[in-house]
Design a protein that fits this description.
Layout (H helix, E strand, L loop, with lengths): L6 E3 L2 E2 L7 H8 L4 E3 L2 E5 L3 E7 L4 H9 L10
Parallel strand pairs: 1-3
Antiparallel strand pairs: 2-5, 4-5
C-alpha cells in the first residue's frame, strides 16, 4: 500500500450480504483496491454467501495493473 500498488480482492464469505457487506462497500470506494467479479453463491441454501468468479481472476489482475476495475463487479 505504501508504494500505491493495486490490491486485488477475491470475495468469498458466508456473510457477504449481511455482516461483511459494510466492509466490502468501504473497500469498493477505496483507491487501489480492485475486485474480482463476484456473485451470490447459492441463494436458496446460502442466502448471504458471496463467492468470486474464478473465470475473471486473470482479467481482473490485468485490469488492476492498468488501474481499472473490471466490470461488472456483480455477475
Amino acid at each position: 500500500m505504501r508504494n500505491q500498488n493495486p490490491v486485488v480482492i477475491g470475495v468469498s464469505t458466508n456473510d457477504g450480504l449481511s455482516g461483511s457487506l459494510e466492509n466490502i462497500g468501504k473497500l469498493l470506494n477505496r483507491k487501489n483496491y480492485y475486485f474480482i467479479p463476484f456473485k451470490q453463491d447459492n441463494p436458496i441454501t446460502k442466502p448471504n454467501s458471496l463467492v468470486f468468479d474464478k473465470n475473471y481472476i486473470i482479467p481482473a489482475i490485468e485490469m488492476a495493473a492498468e488501474r481499472e476495475q473490471i466490470q461488472p463487479i456483480l455477475t
